[in-house]
Design goal:
This protein is of the alpha/beta class. The protein is 38% helix and 15% strand. It has 12 helices and 12 strands. β1 and β2 form a beta hairpin. It starts with 5 loop residues before the first strand and ends in a 5-residue tail after the last helix. The mean pLDDT is 95.
């Protein structure tokens, strides 16, 4: 086991390593094939290697697959459940036919139904951290969080969180049942939650931030230099961040970060992860390959000085327009 430092996530008692493993890309569907083809054997080996190195915090969701991702994790953790901390999410509604319905459902009945199904798919009798994946515009967040609180009382869930929500929603939810974490996209390239004061809200309330896409959906690896570097079926080419002039500007910014990384003798991706950790947040970079889990976990040993942080943040100052991270419809569901 590695000596990855452990930290409190939020202030409700959940202790986690300083880095988690985003498992979405390990299965096909709901964005799972964004990053190339999935290979179950390699994915399971990646989860096992992560544990060997001290990385036992796994992030999944019922929508990934749908349901296939949780089932993959069940195979990987079989016989070792107590060694892992598992976070999963509900809300992108999955019907009884195991297909995504296109709706977001945060109703009390769906929260209960989804939790039972996740427990079954994960092959476990408790979920460590249970999130609402996106806010349901037709259900008051108080109802959703009330149902999640009941799951905690029943012992089926240990801690709860929300994903991609704004300060007002966080306040309303936290008054019903204390939140442990909020998961949002956050990286050197995507700091809107900082601009909107959401990070300050989390700090005031003692709620942790779990940062997904800390490597900017792979863009901060510095390996994507031209549009042709994306495969034909890669959904990233359809996001405003990675199109036209904006794409070229973003490549220039990444190349500046690359220079800092090479001075430090680390990869650009590792530097991006180290920045999130230095800011006091929990990055959950996604990977399905052993090679990358080793590199990502090694990033927890990089220490950045105040000067390093200032230098990186002067390359992409707060407020820099790097392009929207989803299309118009997708953007309506974030920070609400």
């Amino acid at each position: 086991m590695s000596n990855i430092k452990k930290v409190n996530l939020g202030s409700q008692g959940l202790v986690v390593p300083t880095i988690g493993l985003g498992c979405m890309g390990m299965t096909v569907g709901f964005g799972g094939n964004i990053y190339g083809k999935a290979d179950e054997k390699e994915a399971i080996a990646t989860i096992h290697r992560s544990l060997e190195l001290g990385g036992n915090f796994l992030d999944t969701a019922e929508a990934y697959g749908p349901l296939l991702n949780e089932r993959l994790i069940a195979k990987a953790i079989n016989g070792n459940r107590d060694k892992y901390i598992i976070a999963t999410k509900f809300g992108f509604e999955v019907g009884d036919n195991e297909q995504y319905t296109g709706a977001v459902n945060g109703s009390r009945s769906y929260a209960k139904k989804a939790a039972e199904r996740s427990l079954k798919n994960l092959g476990t009798d408790y979920i460590d951290l249970y999130y609402l994946h996106r806010l349901d515009a037709n259900t008051p967040v108080e109802e959703t969080v009330g149902a999640m609180g009941e799951l905690v009382k029943e012992g089926k869930v240990r801690y709860i969180g929300l994903s991609e929500v704004g300060s007002e929603t966080i306040g309303k939810a936290h008054r019903v049942h204390p939140l442990t974490a909020v998961q949002s996209e956050y990286s050197l390239f995507e700091r809107e939650i900082e601009e909107l004061g959401i990070l300050n809200t989390l700090k005031e309330l003692g709620i942790g931030l779990v940062a997904y896409s800390p490597i900017g959906r792979g863009f901060l690896s510095g390996e994507i230099q031209k549009q042709e570097d994306f495969a034909d079926d890669d959904f990233r080419k359809y996001l405003p961040k990675y199109q036209g002039e904006q794409f070229l500007k973003n490549v220039e910014l990444v190349n500046e970060i690359k220079k800092v990384a090479s001075e430090k003798n680390v990869t650009t991706a590792q530097l991006a992860i180290a920045w999130v950790i230095a800011k006091g947040h929990l990055p959950i970079p996604g990977t399905k390959r052993v090679k990358y889990i080793e590199q990502n976990i090694a990033a927890t040993n990089i220490s950045l000085t105040e000067e390093d942080l200032n230098r990186l943040e002067s390359i992409i100052p707060l407020g820099t327009k790097t392009g929207a991270r989803y299309d118009e419809a997708g953007m309506k569901g974030v920070n609400v």
